[in-house]
Amino acid sequence: MAAIKRKRRGDLPGQEKKPKRNRKDAGLPAKSSVEPEEMEEVEKDRIPGPVCKGKWKNKEWVLIFSSRGINFRTRHLMQDLRTLMPHSKADTKMDRKDKLFVINEVCEMKNCNKCVYFEAKKKQDLYTWLSNSPHGPSAKFLVQNIHTLAELKMTGNCLKGSRPV
User: Fold this and answer.
1) Brix domain spans which residues (predicted)?
2) CATH code for the domain of 75
């Protein structure tokens, strides 16, 4: 039994080859005979290929900021949260007169997906807003006790590059 040797293209020896197409036969005309209008039409029909910037990483950025009128303990709590979360961003204090929907705009400008907002009322009560900024749910919590990392003598995040729970 003799084995039939296949050619590279996968053709069998008895089949005919297709004739090669010349540049004149191709869909695009030669450069010398192309008019500017025809070239614009051809370029409009082309779809650009995908742009690859490497492997995509899922980074959920968290914006941590507060309203004006917070005390030093709240400021230290915010700083502790920033040290524990390697993927957090800070922002300047927000005015008390601003409405809460301004937070979504700030998150969009800072390219953040989540938000932790500390709201001080009458310099006594502290509320924490946690939200999924574009159109997600939000929750409001009353903060009763604050214990910072310096008080508890904790060192902070041992694995700075790890993602917190």
Assistant:
1) 60-165
2) 3.40.50.10480
Question: What's the whole-model pTM score?
Answer: 0.57
Q: How many domains does the chain have?
A: 1
Domain that holds residue 79: 62-152
DSSP string of 65-105, one letter each residue: EEBSS--HHHHHHHHHHHHH-TTEEE-PPBPTTS-TTHHHH
Nearest to 29 by CA among 39, 19, 44, 41: 39
Helix (H) or strand (E) holding 106: helix 102-110
Tell me whether residue 165 is in a domain: no
Q: What are phi and psi of 123, to 5 degrees?
A: 55, 20
Question: Each residue's pLDDT tens digit in the chain (165 positions)?
Answer: 556 665 565 555 555 556 666 655 555 555 555 566 666 666 666 676 667 667 767 778 899 988 888 888 888 889 888 888 888 888 888 877 778 888 888 888 888 899 999 998 887 889 999 999 888 899 999 999 988 887 877 666 666 666 554
Please give the Cα distance from 44 to 39 (Å, whole number): 9
Q: Do the domain assignments include residue 75? A: yes
34 belongs to a structural domain: no
